[in-house]
Design a protein that fits this description.
Pfam families: Acetyltransf_1. It comes from Sphingomonas donggukensis. Keywords: Acyltransferase, Transferase. This protein is α+β, with helices and mostly antiparallel strands. The chain has one domain: Aminopeptidase (3-Layer(aba) Sandwich), CATH 3.40.630. Helix content is 33%, strand content 35%. It has five helices and seven strands. It has helices at 12-27, 33-44, 49-52, 107-121, 136-144, and strands at residues 2-6, 59-65, 68-77, 90-98, 126-132, 148-157, 160-170. It has a seven-stranded mixed sheet with strand order 1-2-3-4-5-7-6, sandwiched between helices.
Length: 171
Amino acid sequence: MIAYRDAMPGDGPELSAMAQRCFTDTFGSLYRASDLAAFLDRAFGADGLPSQIGAPDFAIRLATDDGRIVGFAKVGPNALPFPQAEDANAVELYQLYVLGGYQGEGVGPALMDWAIAEARTRAADTLALSVYVDNHRAQAFYRRYGFVDVGRFDFPVGEHVDEDRLMVLAL
């Protein structure tokens, strides 16, 4: 049975490993090994995701199955340059990751509902995210929640630069 809870500092190593596995399973074949390793270290290494657990600007929600992390969502201050970003009180959805065996089981929707509620708790008027241009499944998922595509974003993975789509949801 899937349970949901806020991340705690002790979750750092397991959360880092889960995030790296999820990203690699989904996108790993797209990159040179050196670019992938650099990205994984920057995003999910000790100075990345684990260091944000408990940080006042970030909130991280976990989905667990028998105590094992199978999904997570992270929200925090917006850093995306979407149109009207300067005029918006925006929160960014940095990641919403679900391990492959748990996709289609309601984990993603539960984490998205949490992310939207968390953004509203922070008095945001916009929830922003970026998504890989060819990740059509994720884009369709976000559109079901009312997100709209507002432009391009260059997303670095090591020295490689991907095209992402910027999507926003008016809250």
